[in-house]
Amino acid sequence: MSERVERVEARKAHVKWDNLLHISMREAGVTVALVLIVLFFSATAPYFATTGNFLKIFVQIAINTVLAAGMTFVILTGGIDLSVGSVLALCTVVGATIMTDERLSAGISITLAFVACLGTGAICGAINGWVCEKWKLPSFIVTLGMLNIASGVARVVSNNSTITGLPQSFVEFGNMIFFGVFPSIFVIAVGVVLIGWFILRFTVFGRFIFAIGTNEEAVRLSGHNPSAIKIAAFTISGLTAGIAAMVYLLRLNVGSPIAGIGYELNAIAAVIIGGTSLSGGKGSIIGTLVGACILQVLSTGLQLLGAEDNVKPIVIGTVIVLAVILDTYRNKFLRAMESRRSDG
Amino acid sequence: MHGDELSGFRVETSKGTDSPILRLQSVGKRFPGVVALRDVSFEIARGSGHVLLGENGAGKSTLINLLGGVLQPDDGSIWFDGAPYRPASPLEAFKAGIRVVHQELNLLSNLSVAENLLFEQLPSRRGLVNFREMNRRAAELLAEVGLDVAPTTEVGRLGVAQMQLVEIAKALCHESKLLVLDEPTATLTVREVDRLFAILHRLKAKGVTTLYISHRLEEISEVGDQVTVLRDGQHVTTRPLAGLGIPDIVQLMVGRTITGQGAIGTAAPTGGEALGVTDLKLAADSPAISFSVGQGEIVGIAGLVGSGRTEMVRALFGADPKAAGTIRIEGREVEIVSPKDAVSHGLCLATEDRKGQGLLLEMSCAENMTITDLTRVSRRGLLQRGQEDDFSKRLVRELRVKTPSIHQAVRTFSGGNQQKVVIAKWLFRGPKALIFDEPTRGIDVGAKAEIYELLGNLASDGKGILVVSSDLPELMAICHRILVFSKGRIAGEVSRAEFEEHRILSLAYQEYSRVRAG
């Protein structure tokens, strides 16, 4: 009799442990990969394991992390946003134009620029989402159109030139470093990720994001309007492109219509390496942060190892594909575990 | 008129060999939880027109799929043209000389009519398609079926009836020994049907055997001389058609005479109207549908697959657009243009396609149950997971969902448990009227009984319940009344005291018979 009780208890504990493992598997896999890569370069590449190098990596991943955080929302619903790079360019131009307006005081111009940057990005994102939903178009096409439109508008607004001469206080904030290793822009990026994580994990809106990516029709037939949620996801992606534009201005101190070319692909790569499924419904924003770190650590590490510039993209491309292949094995493993659980 | 011609052809086609073209011996096919065919044996005479009949779920489609190489039998053997026949793929069946025209059209809608017709054997030279030759041959085939479209027309631009004719033309372009036609006339007009029959007579004269499946009982005597009836996956009879009337045939298909068994729907409905529908029209020119479901009442909707039952409930629920009609919930007229409207007024729909439209398969049992009303488990937009767990644990207990944990993904659940999760998610929303479309499809017997019990409990709680099902005994066991759909309209209503399978089935076939008579 007591033996049976023990068995039941053991089984309960087993289920609990399995659940825990299941919940964290998605992030755990990539995090382990990141740690291994960091250890590898620390052992082999000169100067890799130095504060200065980590500081540099943190500076370099900030923009991509912010973009990828917003991209995660869109990809989780099963969409894609190809426009974030050029929306970022447009936002830098808008922000820099306001900040360099001599009629405004530094404080006011920075505040205005901040609002305008985020507003411009959010509007671009909302348009993306609205067009997709209104005419039931694939987001790939719509955001490809926005990529070109935003880029063109950025050229018009900036008169095809880079805008320099940002306020001194703004530039100084961009150069600030906390605790000797965390640059201000990295702190912003981590903040964006944490907010995104909170929204996805703890809000009703976040639940809908996952539900729509899992089965949009089921959500609709459960009495909801998936379009509103999807438009919101695109708006968030546009908003983070606006935040990323502020980060860009803080880091490089220039607004440029040719900023951000190809950024969308890096952002997508970070999301995918981070374990989010391109078909939606599965993934995590913490994974995205880790994915962004992996991309940059690889790039920096290879450089320090003395690899040729031409070799870097080959390695990174391989890693992206490898990450997705590993993901399919991970899903198989998780499924096998689950069916064992429900059968047993 | 056709009958005379028929006998004439039969004389011509006997080729001196009396061996059957097709022979099935103890053929069986099982799917998880269901036996689709059991110990089926019969023969089809060479050069004959053979008609296959049976109710929904009798095993007709499975049998056709075995012949077409889509499925392989688990037991027994099939002999075709004197040799063992066991095609591993549709291509093998086609090569052996069996051509199947499926009910669902299998055309490539982006390609031209000619490309579709000759897809298997495009006329070509050194890998390059000879378009002139292709279009010439396609034009011949189209002329043969009397379809007046250019061979270069894109198939996607054709109407359903035209596509059906293209499918038939496609079957004609290859010399086949056995032509299987699954519901070929479902979408055709009278004139097109007559032309199809003329073609079939011509093929017969050439010695081609046809196996013909149709819901239109009155037309089968024009194309067939033998009939085989299947019931519940088993062979009932194979006999000459001559002398069989439609009532005889229906009796063969039904077999037993089942009346209401008093299992569930015996308690009298309690109150007023839960759901009312007046003059619902799916399209401007479709028939108007009116009915009402009382509080505490279970109303069944019977009818053949494709009779418009699912379309009606989807339009009612706002999942698909409708042209006209008023809907009342608990006596109050409501405006429903989307599922959101329906749900907010207390009308719920458990769809036919549980996995595709009802569940978030990769998400947990708890998440699936609360998706219909997240406001109940959240505060100011923030999820309260404790509350969510409590609610879903209670639902799991009440509905006896078998799962080790409420956090288990519903993908791993059995069909019965998945259906319980669907019911739970609607219970969580607190509905006034519920529609169930095929609530027990693919569910094993034990779980079925539990689902019936749940429906009974919902009714005793005073909710109005509408059940669409192809399983007549099921409807007769659980419903107070049954509305019989026939070709998009309500052909009749049968109350519990008058439940009789034969009567319901006759109503279901009613409109299909009328078309040919007119």
- The Rg value of chain A, from CA coordinates, equals 22 Å
The 3D shape of chain A can be described as globular
Architecture per CATH nomenclature, i.e. the level-2 architecture of the largest domain in chain B: 3-Layer(aba) Sandwich
Question: Could you name the CATH class of chain A?
Answer: Mainly Alpha
CATH architecture of chain A: Orthogonal Bundle
Please work out how many helical segments of chain B DSSP would assign.
18
Shape of chain B: globular
Helix content of chain B: 25-40%
* Global Rg of chain B: 25 Å
| CATH topology (fold) name of the largest domain in chain B | Rossmann fold
The secondary structure category of chain A is mainly alpha
Distance between the termini of chain B: 16 Å
Helix segment tally of chain A: 12
- Whole-number count of domains of chain A: 1
What's the CATH C level of the largest domain in chain B? Alpha Beta
Counted beta strands of chain A: 2
Our count of domains of chain B comes out at 4
Report on the biggest sheet of chain A.
2 strands, antiparallel
**Largest sheet report of chain B:** 6 strands, mixed
Portion of residues in beta strands of chain B equals 15-25%
Report on the architecture of this protein.
The complex is a heterodimer of chains A (344) and B (518). With 344 residues, chain A is an all-alpha fold. Chain A is 78% helix and 1% strand. Chain A has a two-stranded antiparallel sheet with strand order 1-2. Chain B has four domains: 2-97 and 178-254, Rossmann fold; 107-174, no CATH class; 259-346 and 431-518, 3-Layer(aba) Sandwich (Rossmann fold); 359-430, no CATH class. Helix content of chain B is 36%, strand content 24%. In chain B, the strands form six sheets. In chain B, strands 6-9-10-3-11-12 form a six-stranded mixed beta sheet, with helices on both faces. In chain B, strands 18-21-22-15-23-24 form a six-stranded mixed beta sheet, sandwiched between helices. In chain B, strands 2-1-4-5 form a four-stranded antiparallel beta sheet, with no helix packed on it. In chain B, strand 16 (324-329) and strand 17 form a beta hairpin. The model of chain B is unreliable at 1-16 and 257-262 (pLDDT under 50). Chain A binds chain B through residues 15, 19, 202-208, 210-211, 214-215, 217-225, 281-282, 338-339, 341-342, and chain B through 317, 319, 338-340, 342-344, 349, 351, 356-363, 367, 371-372, 374-375, 378, 381-383, 403-405, 407-409, 411-413, 425, 429.
